[in-house]
Amino acid sequence: MLKSLMTVSGFTLLSRITGFARDMLTSYYFGAGALGDTWVAAFRFPNLFRRVLGEGAFNSAFVPLYSGKLAEEGEEVAFSFSSRILILLSMLLSIICVVSYIFMAPITKALTSGFDAEKLALATDLSRITVSYLFFICLVAALSGVLNSHKKFAAPAFSYVSLNLVFLVGLLGVIPFVEGLDQKVAVLAWCLPIGGFVQLLIVILAACKTGVRFKVQVPRIDSDTVKLGLLMGPGLISAGVQQLNLLVGQWVASFQNGGMSAIFYSDRINQLPLGLIGIAFGVVLLPDITQKLRKKQNEAAQQSLQTGMTMAMLIALPAMVGMMVLAEPIIYGIFKAGEFTATQAGIAGQALFAFAIGSPAYVMSKVLQPAYFAREDTKTPMKFTLVSAVVNIVLCGIAFWLLGKNGPLHLGCALATSVAGWVNVSLLLVGLRKAGFLTLNSEFWKRLGKMLVASIAMGVVVWVGAYFLDDILHSDSRLLRIPVLAAIGGAGVLVYFLLAHVTKAMTFGELKAGFKK
Length: 517
What we know:
Blueprint: H1 2-30, H2 34-72, H3 75-102, H4 104-111, H5 117-130, H6 133-149, H7 154-173, H8 181-210, H9 223-253, H10 259-294, H11 298-325, H12 327-335, H13 342-357, H14 359-373, H15 379-403, H16 409-434, H17 442-468, H18 470-473, H19 478-502, H20 508-516
Helix pairs in contact: 1-7, 1-10, 2-3, 2-5, 2-6, 2-8, 2-9, 2-10, 3-6, 4-5, 5-8, 6-7, 6-8, 7-8, 9-15, 9-16, 10-11, 10-13, 10-14, 10-16, 11-13, 11-14, 11-17, 12-13, 12-19, 13-16, 14-16, 15-16, 17-19
């Protein structure tokens, strides 16, 4: 399992690196003000559908069914099932794209109530360009589920790298030669659907190479389709509510000029541990646990989950401490240039600090949810997500009431998201314990305590380093700032893993043995 995790995490890391390069160039050209807000709004809309329909509800229902058919009924039945579903999904996505394009103006206005008329008009135009990306990316997510069920993780993970490479071509090879900021941001918007097409091509070729055979057939509503729909229902609500959490925060932040951009750029950093560990483990664990349960290997399935939790916390805890201690230097070091000012870096740094508090919760929820989905239980996570959404909405409302339109809404909204994340993961843990699927022994809690101690020690090291090297971390040269920031972070990582080894929170031998399995 760890080998598969490292495959996904490795390509995810490459995707994050190229994504940071994309965001650095984007922030250079458009900053974190009004123009940056319009791009965030246009980029966010198709990504919302990707997370709700593609990677959220659809995969949580489709992968267990496909993996189950693959394990119990063989490839031919599984291939026929996936072909029918993919055709239906393509038809549904086409309808969504057309309807969204027609009604994009009221949709954009509803999502960005704080925008003035000029910002709203530009955001609407950009969203009409980017909306077609949801067609490509949802099919990418579906085909990725098929490949993951066959233990093929490289191509789906690499497809996200290709998207960023398309953006970099646009940012470096096209935008410098285009006049006018509105035209430049339009080029950026066109990169999204072009990148989506490239992503889809990559996973299609990988599926053909794997031996997956798709059959062109008239879609029909049979028992499998009905079962998928019933499983997707709670998943749609759950994934939709998760995105509602983010939308509520960004909607409130839209009343603060630059607030949406601050949340966007800070969340990009915050998503790093979630992508490297949380999402990666979710991708690997769902087919793994499903197939073990179908083969009546219940203890092995539970062991996979506990291993996932331990490994997730091994990374998530130090990531939380590191981002909290270095929040502002990270944002300043990576993004401060061109139109992205030091003041904007400070605002986004505050949001990152608040987001980081919930980082372990975001990661752990991605690890725990497959234990529900593998047992074809999508209703329970939905209920827990609804509770966390209510918490988030109430806290965002309180933040808006206390801070007002001119206050630090970015900070209040990010903190509300973190609290909601901890509520959600707490409910997921309790639910698995009541179901008898998860029993955390004293060894797990001892390891967790040792990881926390090692993380705090690491935090002290990076704080001292940042204190004495503050002038360099805030110099005008990005080429100087980033290596020093990386050196401080690297020293912290070294201290953390040495302490984790010494305290036996996780020894080097255990890690080595895990990768050999």
